[in-house]
Amino acid sequence: MPNQTLSAVSTPADKKATPKKGKSTSSVKKTNTSKAASVRKKIFVLDTSVILYDHSAVQNFQENDVAIPITVLEELDNFKKGNDIKNFEAREFIRFIDKLSSEHKLQDWLPLNGKNKGSFKVLMGDTANIDAVRIFGDKNDHRILNSALQLQKEFPEHKVVLVTKDINLRLKARSMNLTSEDYETGKIQDVAGLYSGNDTLEDIPANVINELYEQGKSDIKNVLDEAPADNHYFILKSFKSSILSFYNSSEKQLERVDKLTAYGVKPRNAEQAFALHALMNPQIKLVSVQGVAGTGKTLLALASALEQRKEYKQIYLARPVVPLSNKDIGYLPGDIKSKLNPYMEPLWDNLKYIQNQFSETSKEFQKIKDMLDLEKLLITPLAYIRGRSLSNIIFIVDEAQNLTPHEVKTIISRAGENTKIIFTGDIYQIDTPYLDSQSNGLSYLIDRAKNHPLYSHVTLQKGERSELANLANELL
């Protein structure tokens, strides 16, 4: 969550040690600081993975001091060119420390801007008593580890913490008696309890269900004492009947959810009906659909966009390009289109599925072909969307679990008038090394945007791809 510090910073012990108003917390180098005051601070050493995840990370450690090894700057230099979000993060951080050090040396402790902030410096030395390079081999990670060890030797009165999103580096640090933690800002603590967007309510009075069937709406107080989250979905069950419903927060009432059809695609279960309702509701501008493989996330999003094509100027389908085996797409043969095709194939598969429901001579089949030819429907890597103004379009972002929270925020902040943004993905199927179910952008969005009138989320539970695909999800 924004401005949330690491768990180590916010423990009760640390709260007791918060400096009183007027106390200086700008530098651990001050010789006139008392011993009692000096032990209040920690020194956090950040590695490259943290900077690429969040360029503003150095600002999120309260009054504690933050340092980066010179090796991190060297690694960031390799990321400064390119269109991916990691390249943007690298450039932004470089600009930040350039401004911070415009009148000072980076080898000195420089006060960070803001109330109750610590100081920042670049670590030049890595001559610790214990040599990580000698033990583990000569590579950048181990030079970063040595810098943190040297800092621990230089400031024994402070707790030095290496912060990295690299699990293996954290383990190596701990093996050398150096405290190491993951970067916690934006991390969801309770993934198991993540907002699902829908519930099943039993023992509902029959007259409420009858009212929904006949009038299409009912007072929420007939079902719940307290209002649920905005745009929340319900399966309401009585002894003999059931109905699908939706909480319209603007009207403060339940409304019946009918099973819609979108460009020939019909929902096969209640959750899919909820998802289509949210995707085709013009009042809801931001939708996320989460579920395991085969639940129909991308198919429903694409079908709903095609159904609403007349309401928008264009439809964009994008997904993050996650290089295989940590190799950039430049390793693949061919021109840029050939390089990107393997990453875009799942989107093409869903589009072909929708198109093949109709005969080749039908107007529905031809319409999709025309939209592709006229670029009314664009399938593109996510990196090509950055910097554009997204007005009067439906923008579908597939595999959103491979985005960072900052990337999700950047995408949504590009939305202009009459734009609808849809994120789909599975928070447990992550392909990037420094994200997990707690720290990815999709989980972050679901947790932070719930209960907003412009947002709706649905978790799809049942796989509908095939019985064989269900077997894999359930048993393997």
Automatic annotation (TrEMBL):
Disordered: annotated segments: 1-32
Key words of the record: ATP-binding, Nucleotide-binding
Residues of the PIN domain: 42-171
Regions crossing the membrane: none
Ranges of Polar residues composition bias in the record: 1-10
Xref: SMART domains: PINc
A Pfam family of this chain: PhoH
InterPro entries attached to this UniProt entry: P-loop_NTPase, PhoH, PhoH2-like, PIN-like_dom_sf, PIN_dom
SUPFAM superfamilies, sorted: P-loop containing nucleoside triphosphate hydrolases, PIN domain-like
Family annotation (PANTHER family): PIN DOMAIN-CONTAINING PROTEIN, PROTEIN PHOH
Family: In the N-terminal section; belongs to the PINc/VapC protein family. Belongs to the PhoH family.
The name this protein goes by in its record: PhoH family protein
